[in-house]
Amino acid sequence: MYVPCLFSQSTSLDVTENMDEKNTAVGAKADKRPDAQLAMSVSYYPVTAGDVYTLAFSAGGTPIQYTIPVDSTYQIRVANLGVVNCAGLTYLQLKNQVESLVLRNYPMGGVQFVLTSPSTFLVSITGEVTTTVEQEAWALTRLSTFAGQYFTQYASTRKVTIKSSSGRVRTYDLFKAKREGDLSQDPFLRPGDKIIANELERKVSISGAVRRPGTYELLEGENLKQLVEKYADGFAPLADSSRIELYRSVTEKEGSGEKSYLNKTNIDENMPLVCYDRVYISSYNDLKPKIYVEGAIGGGMEKTEENVTNRIVATFNNGEDYAYFVRRNRGWFSSVSDLENAYLIRDGKKTPINLNLMLYDATYYSNIEMKAEDTLCVPFKQYFVSVAGAVMNPGRYPYILDRDWEYYIGLAGGFTESNAHNSVELHDMNGKKYSKKEVITPETTITAKRNSFFYNWNRYAPTITTVLSIVVSALSIYVTSQTL
Fold first, then answer.
1. pTM of this prediction exceeds 0.85
2. φ and ψ of 298, to 5 deg
3. Which of the chain's termini has less CB crowding within 10 Å, N or C?
4. What's the pLDDT tens digit per position in 172-213?
């Protein structure tokens, strides 16, 4: 937060020069829209051209209220009592001065001075940006608000320039603000500020067994040692410092980049890095044997669709059995995982493996030892209901708990005209017939009957008529021939 300095009425200073970095912790809400309550709740809100204040007091028993706007001169008139220069003041400082001025003239005035509407203003963003724009801001909007929105991948976040309306130029390091909490490097914006994104000089990435993998912009003189120890926050517990890979995409040679293999000595010697270098720190886990787990898995890893097959490459310890492995990774499985019918593929052979017992039977002991390159397959468990007969779209439809037969007929497009009186037959998975009033069970077959008299008559009437016509004609010929 900013610690306000008390200025006299005649003082005119840039407010950003007098704010203390340790008092600048304002949340994300400050960056979104002007908020009078938020502005008055902090001690460092700077009076800004465009602010609107409300002054209320009592003069001889008569209530008086004024609306006081602040223009670009920062000179405000307090009723008919005087003029206050509010340039460089915080809201609290201005409040104290205004209330003191009123109380000197009306000791029993019960004065109140509040911020009614915080100012909004425009700042320009230019340089290494996707497009040069002017954006609306207010007095509690920080520089970082617009850096993420408009800076290109080639823009520096370590050297961001702000040119104020008075012509003062300052450069800020947003990394220090984000990582070290030095919010003096992420200042509040002021009217007329021009944000200039400068081009970055070196950006490198580090991944693998470090505490903070990521892509970082290095300053002059910073190299491999600073990348590992400062930016990546050191090695992770299982890091193998003897196996470090450096991929350098920008070289003096034509064609593709080159890979180098480094070790702890290179870190201690602070090996120089160039832009777009990629460093990978190996882990001792990389040396562990691996198996593949695929199918209806993924629930505990990240957000995945339950009906999509996933594949995980997993490590294990030598001598570990599948029961321990499955229990250790129980979060991978979900309600659609058919644990009972899982199977193991090893050396081209398929072996059934009941994961239900491993997960839920505490007395179960597995003697299936894990081996490298095994594939553990977990099928999907999905029940269906079959709809056949006189419906528009016969087929199999996913089973939904507590749905009746009419729901599944609806999924199949409804009855055709060959069905009368909603006549259906229901058979469970074992072929046993049951009533329409009973609860539909998984793998039920619903058969819609073709029992409409008029439908069947219309279907076969032409054939019957033709046959009868032939018979009548034949009889007529026979009778005629006998008469002759």
1. no
2. 115, -5
3. C
4. 999 999 999 999 999 999 999 999 999 999 999 999 999 999
Q: What one-letter code names the amino acid at 406?
A: E
